[in-house]
Write a structure and sequence with these properties.
By secondary structure, the protein is of the alpha/beta class. Helices cover 41% and strands 20% of the residues. It folds into two domains: 118 residues, Rossmann fold, CATH 3.40.50; 94 residues, Winged helix-like DNA-binding domain superfamily/Winged helix DNA-binding domain (Arc Repressor Mutant, subunit A, Orthogonal Bundle), CATH 1.10.10. Helix 4 links the parallel strand 4 and strand 5. Helix 2 packs parallel to helix 3 and helix 3 crosses helix 7. The structure holds calcium ion (CA). The site of calcium ion has 5 residues, from loops.
């Protein structure tokens, strides 16, 4: 039996490119939704997760990297992301992978190439190989949210789990306190600095009984997750 066509969400601010992609996807019988800015695209992706997200890097308001980071922190399952970047943006490309993109395509590109990448990503994801994230001996199943370290299941409540996933997606980069707060709570964090409490709970669950702590405090900057093996 043929695989059902994937549902695609495209976040792209260039109207001509959106129109081209719309025509191309309909020609192939694929349903695609479109958003023209990062924030509305992110909200769409969170409320109705697509099979593949095609995400432009340069967007008004919330750029592609931030959309990707927030999606990874807030979505309850893994959404494969194909990042679109400008030709000369090699560093951005690398950043794109660190913020959790699964693949990238350099502009300008052929529509057929984009279609092929989308289909490959969706297939790979359906085959179930793309949803487990590894940092050293830590693994996190993005679908179930279950995390293991060195064969032990970590007892984490939801906020600590979101923090761990955000740190793991960013690893080895340091996330500042404000980045962490934004990734986990979005624009409306609860009052009275709960970050400290949740980081304490995360540290206890992740590193407590082990000799090699993974959660590192970078004094005056923030926190990062360091691979232990
Ligand atoms: Ca753009």
């Amino acid at each position: 039996m043929a695989m059902p066509a994937p549902r695609i969400l495209v976040i792209e601010d260039n109207p001509a490119l959106r129109a081209n992609l719309d025509a191309m996807f309909s020609e192939h019988g694929i349903h695609a939704d479109f958003a023209a800015d990062g924030l509305s695209g992110l909200q769409f992706a969170l409320s109705d997760p697509p099979d593949v997200l095609v995400l432009d890097l340069g967007l008004p308001g919330l750029d592609g990297l931030r959309v990707c980071e927030r999606l990874r922190a807030q979505a309850d399952r893994h959404v494969p992301v194909l990042m679109l970047t400008a030709r000369d943006a090699l560093e951005d490309k690398l950043l794109g992978f660190r913020s959790g993109a699964d693949d990238y395509l350099v502009k300008p590109f052929a529509a057929a190439e984009l279609l092929a990448r989308c289909l490959a990503l969706s297939q790979r994801h359906r085959a179930g190989t793309a949803h487990v994230l590894h940092v050293g001996s830590l693994s996190i199943d993005r679908r179930s949210g279950v995390a293991h370290r060195a064969g032990r299941t970590l007892a984490l409540q939801q906020t600590a789990r979101h923090l761990l996933l955000a740190l793991a997606e960013a690893s080895p980069r340091t996330l500042t306190r404000s980045e962490l707060i934004e990734l986990v709570w979005g624009a409306s964090p609860p009052e009275s600095g709960p970050l400290r409490t949740h980081l304490y709970l995360l540290r206890r669950a992740l590193d407590g009984p082990l000799d090699t702590p993974m959660l590192k405090t970078v004094h005056g900057v923030g926190f990062r997750l360091e691979a232990d093996i």
